[in-house]
Amino acid sequence: MSKLEAVLFDLDGVIVDTAKHHYRAWKELANELGFDFTEEDNERLKGVSRVESLNILLEIGQVEKTEKEKEELAARKNQRYVEAISTMDESEILPGVIDFLQELKNENVPFALGSASKNAPAILKHIKLFDAFDAIVDGNSIAKAKPDPEVFLQGADKLGANYENCVVFEDAQSGIEAGKAAGMYVVGVGSADVLKGADDYITHMTEMNVERIRRK
Ligand code: BG6
Ligand code: MG
């Protein structure tokens, strides 16, 4: 990529390992409803909004609930999740993230958050990265969840960047599809066997630097 204008980061599973807290909270809910929920099932929930995640969970358990019951279940899951993340601190930032953000700052490449989570601002505050981002787009400001590109398009717009010169970092299949639908260069954080369709793959942010992107 000859002209790198901006970088867009997913939060859960890219900046910080909150995926394990989401998984635990959903699993507890599934168990209470009388069925099991595996890590493989959990892959389908990554990047997906809270409401849509619950729908997938109920479909896996073949359980039917009214809209009112669903509201209560989603709130119960979120309460547990919020409790789990309340003790998070900067030690939970994933390896290589701080160095890469610093490199972007040194190179004057702006970066934004593009997350489906309504808890994103709270998490960023816990890990002391709230002020590091040039823009934040999260589950509170988008109407259409990933794989819709809205979250990344909004992020690029806030940074005044051309979509084709933006890079997205994503650990979820729905997020990779959202980044590609936005016309952006997408780096999958995870295995190419699980995540399909990204332009590049890394297992940790430690493998990433500005030079690697510019060479593409
Ligand atoms: C995404 C996570 O970032 O946010 C999903 O990958 C989660 O697992 C979604 O469901 C919504 O999060 P929240 O915090 O608004 O329930
Ligand atoms: Mg994620």
UniProtKB/TrEMBL annotation:
Cofactor: Mg(2+)
Binding-site list for Mg(2+): 10, 12, 170-171
EC number: 5.4.2.6
Pfam families associated with the record: Hydrolase
Stored InterPro entries: B-phosphoglucomutase_hydrolase (IPR010976), Beta-PGM (IPR010972), HAD-like_sf (IPR036412), HAD-like_SPP (IPR051806), HAD-SF_hydro_IA (IPR006439), HAD_sf (IPR023214), PGP-like_dom2 (IPR023198)
Record keyword Isomerase present: yes
Annotated substrate binding sites: 10-12, 26, 45-50, 53, 77, 115-119, 146
Catalytic center residues: 10, 12
Record-level Gene Ontology MF annotations: beta-phosphoglucomutase activity; magnesium ion binding; sugar-phosphatase activity
Domain of life: Bacteria
Keyword terms: Isomerase, Magnesium, Metal-binding
Cofactor note: Binds 2 magnesium ions per subunit.
Sites marked Important for catalytic activity and assists the phosphoryl transfer reaction to Asp8 by balancing charge and orienting the reacting groups: 115, 146
GO terms of biological process kind: carbohydrate metabolic process
Enzyme class: isomerase
Family to which this protein belongs: Belongs to the HAD-like hydrolase superfamily. CbbY/CbbZ/Gph/YieH family.
The protein's name: Beta-phosphoglucomutase
